Amino acid sequence: MVKVPEIFGSKVFNDDVMKDRLPKPAYKALKSTIENGETLDSNIANAVAHAMKEWAIEMGCTHYTHWFQPLTGVTAEKHDSFITPDGDGKVIMTFGGKELIKGEPDASSFPSGGIRATFEARGYTAWDPTSPAFAKDGTLYIPTAFASYTGEVLDKKTPLLRSMERISNEAIRILKLFGKDDVKRVITNVGPEQEYFLIDKEMYDARPDLIYTGRTLFGAKAPKGQELDDHYFGSIKTRVKQFMAELDKELWSYGILAKTKHNEVAPSQHEIAPVFTTTNIAVDQNELMMEILKKTAEKLDLVCLLHEKPFAGVNGSGKHNNWSLVTSDGENLLKPGKKPEENIQFLLFLAAIIKGVDEYQDLLRLSVASAGNDHRLGANEAPPAIMSVFLGDQLDAVVHSLEFGEDYESEKLENMELGVEVLPTLRMDTTDRNRTSPFAFTGNRFEFRSLGSSENVAGPNIMLNTIVAQELKEFADHLETVKDKKRAIKRLIVSTFKKHDRIIFNGDNYSKEWEAEAERRGLLNLKCVPQALKYVINEKNITLFTENNVLTREELKARYDVELENYSKIINIEALTMIDMAKKDIIPAVTEYIKTLTDTALAKQELSTDIPIVLEKKIITDLSQNLVCFGDKVIELENDLEKAGELSEDIQAYADFYHDVVLADMEALRAIGDKMESQTGSEYWPYPSYGEMLFGV
Ligand code: ADP
Ligand code: MG
Questions:
Q1: What distance lies between CA 659 and its chain's CA centroid?
Q2: What is the CA radius of gyration of the chain?
Q3: Which protein residues touch ligand 1 with a CB less than 6 Å away?
Q4: Which of 92, 116, 415, 671 is the most buried (most CB within 10 A)?
């Protein structure tokens, strides 16, 4: 039996452990650093380091690592052992405050977007005391931020922490206007829902495309996909259940509040959601969760696919970022209460968010842009590339009445009768469940639904926090100077709703009509990475980040360079993998099958010319024609890759070319490949089929 309270957090240097092991003054100082963001004195750091080391050794650790999140999109770690020679040929285990606070990994191979020349490639990591350290596989993991030696930010955590501080400070200014002078901090909470696929390891190993790129580049549709909707929330298969149980246990031991799990829409697709927590911790835990998903799958001879679109023709995977603002006193600032129309403070925060999403649509959009996510957004399985806000009927009516100066009639919330005695009467959910909206109000939080499944959630949260901080700042700057605050606040709310109501959309975001309507409203529709990323470095956005001290102009430019280059690299790898598969496996396999058919037909003829060979002839003819066409497409793709290479000096043109030309070539090649798969005997086809992969667990 699993004793959850006992295993929960057992591998984490958490509050209980600290209280237990730290001298009282050290514990108090550390707590105050964590809660109020105060700096930690070096004596205290030594005490914490000592306690951490003792604890880690008891947990079986021999090493420690500064764990950080460079711009590669995956976490990085370099392990150092605790040993120090004692001078007598023996060793002692040491770990001091200095080593806890600062590390100096050789950073020359991490992407910096040209910020650093190689001769000054040193970087350093700095401890983030607000995210707890943990023991994993014999190493003490210390969450850290990563910067260059001259101070330029090279990671995702630093701007995230800065943005959290910015939004806190501005929200506090707003709360003061409502007489709430005692609020020390305003915290952003995040609950990321994580989708993933689980397939058999043997099938994975037989697919070079999955191994090199995380997604299938060829694959004819199986006779059955997700059309019957029988997988969503369906009963969970034994092997998957075993995986989920193992996963929960692992996650709990790292203090991750794994809560909900269920089957998703596509066959073999599942979801896990933890209980929400402070943003930087939620980000760290989601990174750890993705790693644990993969490792747990391996233990059971399964592979967990986190790619946004591993299989064409069925849904891909995303991540919903549930986001809210709560004060250090526990007040959720996004809770409308029973009468939202009278809750002026809530309406002011709501107005700031609506204004922010409208003014910085581009930033929110580009924060979820990735080569993988390009396959999902706008493909009728995920929100479109157009940003909009969903409010739900009740809140929409409130906003509408304010805009037009009409009285708001508190809706008589009807009870929904399920018609079955034993079931309780449910209150109609006033925030509805519009699953198609990219940014939906869901009762006491906003749910940003456009994220890709493999993405580090730091990016979108940096945007959200900074944008809303900026809007709150503009509000506070104005409101602090006026006399009649109450009246000014109301006027500001009304004028903001009026000005930005184009961003509110409660209808079906998947519909063609919305695309046309959004265009009429002047909303952006940035369809792919190269189109979206350009907006990072426009002046409006540079001003936003520099004025809020979240990122500098150079750092933004670096991010743009790194991500755009990364995009081109990903597609290049995909294209090379396709060429390889085509030449080494697919063309030989089809040729072999044609040969067998030809041999059979000839043998039949030899026996008697009366035996019909029309079927063989037809298949041989079709396949031979397709094979020629397939070969031509391979050559086209190769030629275009060569052309791409010539553009590599101009990263924007380079990425545009990969999107406009190379991806199109790949699609054309795949189409013929998939056609040939459906015409070729399954024993001849070199790879496991979609049916085998999707229904094979
Ligand atoms: P659904 O799929 O219906 O959206 P889930 O239960 O799968 O709901 O996930 C909801 C997520 O939202 C969970 O991670 C949950 O902890 C998180 N959440 C709930 N309340 C808040 C809040 N106030 N702030 C941030 N996240 C929240
Ligand atoms: Mg959700």
A1: 21
A2: 28
A3: 189-191, 193, 260, 273-276, 322-324, 332, 444-445
A4: 116
**If you count them, how many residues does the chain have?**
697
Q: Give me the sign of the Cα torsion angle 78, 82, 87, 89.
A: negative
Within a 10 A sphere around the Cβ of 652, how many other Cβ atoms?
14
Residues 6+ apart with CB under 8 A from 381: 265, 315, 316
Q: Which atom of ligand 1 is nearest to the CA of 192?
A: 14
Supply 360's token pair: 């910085």
Q: What share of the chain is helix, strand, coil (3-state, %, to 5)?
A: 50, 15, 35
* Per-residue pLDDT tens over the stretch 144-193: 999 887 788 889 999 999 999 999 999 999 999 999 999 999 999 999 99
Phi, psi angles (nearest 5°) of residue 6: -75, -40
Euclidean distance between the first and the last CA atom of the chain, given in angstroms as a whole number: 25
pLDDT band at 339 (very low <50, low <70, confident <90, very high): confident
Q: Closest Cα partner for 566 from 7, 32, 72, 28? A: 72
What is the number of the ligand closest to the CA of 258? 1
255 C-alpha vs ligand 2 centroid, how far in Å? 22
d(CA 228, CA 131): 43
Q: Residue 675, Cα to own-chain centre: how many angstroms?
A: 33
Residues contacting 343, CB < 8 A, separation 6+: 336, 337
pLDDT in tens, 29-44: 999 888 877 778 888 9
CA distances 287 to 223, 256, 282, 427, 456, Å, are 35, 11, 9, 36, 7
Asked if pLDDT for residue 410 goes beyond 70, the answer is no
Query: Per-residue pLDDT for 16 more than 90?
Result: yes
Sign of dihedral through CA atoms 559, 564, 565, 567? positive
Please list, residue by residue across 556-565, b when 16 or more beta carbons sit within 10 angstroms of its beta carbon and e when fewer do: bbbbbbbbbb
Q: Please check whether residue 135 is in contact with residue 287, taking contact to mean a CB–CB distance below 8 angstroms.
A: no
Which of 402, 387, 392 is CA-nearest to residue 522?
387
- The CA angle 65-69-72, to the nearest 5 degrees, is 120
294 by DSSP, 3-state: which? helix
Give residue 422's pLDDT.
Answer: 44
**Which 8-state DSSP code applies to residue 100?**
H
Instruction: Average the pLDDT over 450-461 and give the result.
Output: 97
Give 537's DSSP letter: G
- Domains annotated for the chain, with CATH where assigned, are 4-153 (3.10.20.70), 163-551 (3.30.590.10), 567-694 (1.20.120.1560)
Side-chain half-sphere of 171: how many Cα atoms within 13 Å?
30
User: Which two tokens mark 267?
Assistant: 């066959």
Q: Which of 322, 431, 445, 451 to mutate to test the pocket of ligand 1 (most atoms within 8 A of CB)?
A: 322
Q: Find out whether 353 and 448 touch, Cβ atoms under 8 Å.
A: no
Please count the CA atoms within 13 angstroms of the CA of 170 that sit on its side-chain side: 28
Q: Which two tokens stand for residue 515?
A: 């695309």
Report the residue among 186, 190, 193, 194 best suited for mutation to probe ligand 1: largest number of ligand atoms under 8 A from its CB: 193
What count of other Cβ atoms lies within 10 Å of the Cβ of residue 201? 13
